Amino acid sequence: MTNQYPKDLVPYFFGQTASTYDKIVLFTTFGKDNYWKNEIINKIKSPESILDLACGTGILTRKLAKKFPKSEIIGIDISQDYLKMAEKNSSTFSNISFLHQDAENLNLDLKFDCICSSYIPKYCNPEKLVKNCITHLNYNGQIILHDFSYPKNKIIKKLWNSYFVFLNSLGIFLPTWKYAFAELPKVIRSSNWVFSYKQELEKNDFQVKVQYLTWNSSVILYAEKPQSTK
């Protein structure tokens, strides 16, 4: 991997992959992506409004819209191609809208009851992202972040590494995904996002809970302020 900041890799990972993303993420996670996103949703309290950061093709966004049909759901993403795919796939939902925004430089004149995201933390600066989330969060709102993590168990770690070697070889047949398959495991191994975001949120008086999933290869970080804290 180059010395690029993780966010700088996003165009290379996802520049030409919008049309195949849904199938690839389902296949490469053995369907666990669906389970992880359901776990995110299970933590959300009856919100009137939800912001889905880095919504991609809208997989999580649509799940949110189904679960909370009376809520206003907004998905943002830095990729126009992914947003076009999200809009196309979400045309039957009246409570979803999509906006072209960078989560690290979020600028919406809106506040939300819940801000959530799947797969964004490892790419972003924790201080910037948390600051933007707080600016756009209603009082007593929730922040829920999900991403991959590098397993600690030696046996699982070997299986994890072997699996990404397999994906890397699979990239020969999926050229638009070849770079992502080769570089993504390096980003995950080097990321300390769980600790960094937990620390940043706690600095801002949030109570943070961490849920490890699927042999510690996936993590959900859930944060909210105590009722007595303003």
Biggest sheet descriptor? 7 strands, mixed
Q: Could you report the average pLDDT, rounded to the nearest whole number? A: 94
What is the CATH superfamily?
Answer: Vaccinia Virus protein VP39
Strand content: 15-25%
End-to-end distance: 42 Å
Report the structural category.
alpha/beta
- Count of all domains: 1
Report the CATH C-level class. Alpha Beta
CATH architecture: 3-Layer(aba) Sandwich
Helix and strand pattern: HHHEHEHEEHEHHHEE
Helix content: 40-55%
Annotation field: number of helices: 9
List the main descriptive attributes of the protein structure presented here.
about 230 residues, alpha/beta, Rossmann fold, seven-stranded mixed beta sheet, 7 strands, about 20% strand
Can you describe this structure?
- Helices cover 41% and strands 21% of the residues.
- Strand 1, helix 4 and strand 2 form a beta-alpha-beta unit.
- It contains nine helices and seven strands; from the N terminus they run αααβαβαββαβαααββ.
- The chain has one domain: Vaccinia Virus protein VP39 (Rossmann fold).
- A seven-stranded mixed sheet has the order 3-2-1-4-5-7-6, sandwiched between helices.
- The protein has 230 residues and is an alpha/beta fold.
Structure in a nutshell:
By secondary structure, this protein is an alpha/beta fold.
Produce the secondary structure layout.
Elements: H1 10-14, H2 21-28, H3 32-42, E1 49-53, H4 59-67, E2 72-77, H5 80-89, E3 96-100, E4 112-118, H6 126-135, E5 137-148, H7 154-170, H8 178-190, H9 193-203, E6 207-213, E7 218-224
Parallel strand pairs: 1-2, 1-4, 2-3, 4-5
Antiparallel strand pairs: 5-7, 6-7
Helix pairs in contact: 7-8
